Amino acid sequence: MALSDHFDVRLRTVSKSFGSVDALSSLSLELVRSEITVLLGPNGAGKTTAARVITGAIEPDTGDVEVFGVDPAGPDGEQVRRDCGVVSAKPSLYDRLSGLDNLRYAASLYGLGTGVEAEARIVEAAKQFEIDADLHHKVGGYSTGMKTRLALARAILHRPRLLLLDEPTSGLDPESSVAVLAMVREMTADDRTVLMCTHLLSEAEGLADQVIMLEGGRDLLNGDPQSLSQRFWPSPSIDITALHGPDLDRMALWPEILSYDRVEATAHVEISDDTSPADIILRLAGDGIRLDSIMPFRPSLEDLYFAVRAERRAPETGSDETPPVGESPKSGRGELDRSRPTARSAQ
Questions:
Q1: Is CATH 3.30.420 the right assignment for the domain spanning 234-296?
Q2: What is the Cα–Cα distance from 68 to 153, expressed in whole angstroms?
Q3: Which helix H or strand E contains 28, and what residues bound it?
Q4: For residue range 152-207, what is the model confidence (pLDDT) as tens digits?
């Protein structure tokens, strides 16, 4: 069956086990052409296994996989792999060779030969990832960031239609991470489809056209960030900070306030669709409450992650109580951690 023109990759109820460990469990996903899909999840969630299933490096136990309309583990799998560029979390490079020789060797493996066209592609890729000035240096002297850029340049030499990036910013400093992620975004401009695996929520923020959150080989969340936000926060929400936080608690009884939660001096409130933030400000000011700030609430991927985990966990605990949304514990760069709490308490 031919794949839709809209999708380059489709997995349907794919499962894969290694011994007693379920790496993937009935995973279904679709990668939209020329978009960035980010697979998010803690270590061991199944991200790398999903990427290997897509390239045909491993065959699923059950389920269907289509990449460009072809089964990557089937007899036409080599056709799929020719159209894929892969950057692993720790790319294998030849430290004793120069960057140029690494790319020349890769070009020969891709069947590009050693002629003028191959050299032109090497120069083009090196310039795109800003390593052209260092191509004649040995890779052993490259920084971690430069090695990542070299691996990205190598991955696009054969002009693949699909790029699979496994933790592309692993080991990079914040400045280099930002630069690499900006380059990832640029790659979709060439009509490439990108699948990026990461355990850092902050990396997907503002980059992902589609987010798939994995845990234990299952998808917790799947969709574009805007529609996912509307699913969990369908009504407008605002964060209000007062000079004296308890003064805001009267809002909990107002009919136009659909939900209310306060932490110290800041209250997170969900308001009815026919109410504007200006209405709230005027009423509070009329009550003599001195406000410090009022900001529209824009949920982050971290907010989404903890909201969906709370939703999934509620049936298991038999509780109808849903932790207040709008805030989750912050730690470092937004790394996913199964042990982190999901609720906040008003003080």
A1: no
A2: 23
A3: strand 21-32
A4: 999 999 999 999 999 888 878 888 888 888 888 888 877 889 999 988 887 888 88
